[in-house]
Amino acid sequence: MHLNPLSPPRVSAYVFHAIAVLGLNFSGAALAQDAPQMNLQRVKLSAGMHQIDAQVAQTPAQRQTGLMYRREMPQHEGMLFVFEQPAIQCFWMKNTLLPLTAAFVADDGTITNLADMQPQTEASHCSTKPVRFVLEMNQGWFAKKNLKAGSTLVGAPFATK
């Protein structure tokens, strides 16, 4: 018996597979995130004379995915994680391919501490104080700019003193 490849069961399976490959379900929400998120809102930040173009991860899903699956990132770019309330924030690098440094940042833009993080590990890196912001940049970016705990970031997300 020869089956018509466009018969309803085949079409349904094909359509479901195509939707799954695209990472969508019928409501348009993601089934599983296995690709980098590249189209988040952006914000301009500065650290002294150094400019940063940061994607903003502000929803739980955006924060959970973070910079996972990115194979490269320009040196002046990063990701700013924004949380609703200050808390001890802890980050890990599962499914993250780039070595990163996390700057844990207070509401006024002051860096409380930095943590170098190795790719594809589940080691936890935490803020030393409750913070609402975490800025991830390519590993070494903060050191090359001589930025450390106590340095200040400036930009719209941070309250002015």
Please tally the β strands and state the result.
9
The CATH architecture of the largest domain: Sandwich
Largest sheet: 7 strands, mixed
The spatial strand order of the largest sheet comes to 6-5-8-3-2-1-9
Strand-pairing-aware structural class: alpha+beta
Strand content: 25-35%
Helical proportion, percent range? 10-25%
Instruction: Output mean pLDDT.
Output: 84
- The first-to-last residue Cα distance is 77 Å
Number of domain units: 2
Radius of gyration: 20 Å
Number of helices: 3
Strand and helix order: HEEHEEEEEEHE
The 3D shape can be described as globular
CATH topology name of the largest domain = Jelly Rolls
* CATH 4th-level superfamily of the largest domain: Protein of unknown function DUF192
What does this structure look like?
- By secondary structure, the protein is an alpha+beta fold.
- The chain folds into 2 domains: 1-32, no CATH class; 42-155, Jelly Rolls (Sandwich), CATH 2.60.120.1140.
- It contains 3 helices and 9 strands; from the N terminus they run αββαββββββαβ.
- It has helices at residues 8-22, 60-65, 141-144; strands at 42-47, 50-57, 77-87, 90-91, 100-105, 111-117, 125-126, 131-138, 154-155.
- It has a 7-stranded mixed sheet. A two-stranded antiparallel sheet has the order 4-7.
- β1 (42-47) and β2 (50-57) form a beta hairpin.
- The longest helix has 15 residues, at 8-22.
- The chain is globular and about 35 Å long.
- The N and C termini lie far apart (77 Å).
Strand and helix layout:
Elements lengths: L7 H15 L19 E6 L2 E8 L2 H6 L11 E11 L2 E2 L8 E6 L5 E7 L7 E2 L4 E8 L2 H4 L9 E2 L6
Parallel strand pairs: 2-3
Antiparallel strand pairs: 1-2, 1-9, 3-8, 4-7, 5-6, 5-8
